[in-house]
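dumping this here before i forget
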Amino acid sequence: MAELTYDIFSCLLDIKQFLVKQNKETKVIEEERQKIESLNSSIEEGMTNQSSMMNIILEEVKENGKKIAELSENLENQSKRVCTEAEKVSSYAEILQKSAATKVESCSQPKPLVKQVVAEMKASNRRSNLVFYGVPGIHVDHENDIFDFSSEVDGVLKEFEGMVGFSVKPNHLELLKKTDFYQDNKGKNRSSCIVRVYFHSEYVARKILKYKKRLKRSDQYSKVYIAPDRTLDEQNARAELVAKLRKYNPVNIHHQAAQ
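structure:
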């Protein structure tokens, strides 16, 4: 009986020691679990902060993309202006080079040389101009005999925007002559005007001359004719050429005169 009691006591002691050990291991596991949960919480917080940071970076990238696009557009516009100015500088340099060569050949006659330089510069500037014939003008001031033709010139130039690939805006308009006075279907007094149109570069004028024949397809401006800005001597020489062409080819004389 004493041995049985001892065995039971010994077994209970072992069970107690096992439970104590088990409780210690449970506490260790609980502590590790808490550490893991704390670590997971830190990771989730870090991921949230990282996501917020990424959103901020994406917004900054988008904003910088817009700024880069604006800078690119500004650089493109500046490049066009530089090309235009380069054309003018090249033209003036050529004029000065020709003038210098002429001056070396005839230094005893400075006045004709100056006149030649001025004439060359005027010719260079004139190449940036065009003359529009048959522009409809509206009588806006009967007392002072003033006709408005600027809106019609703008309408003609809009016909070319799709052809030349850029917006065409004149620097200045000059009325040269009014012809063919008439009344339109609304009873307004009109006149067929000859207008000199000044552009900022020779390149724009050449582009319009290239596509001028297509204006014949326009419903509103098919009767408007566009020509280079020629001097009186050039006009007279052209008239003589047309007269000679009339003798040899009277059928195509209108076409040759329009060139």
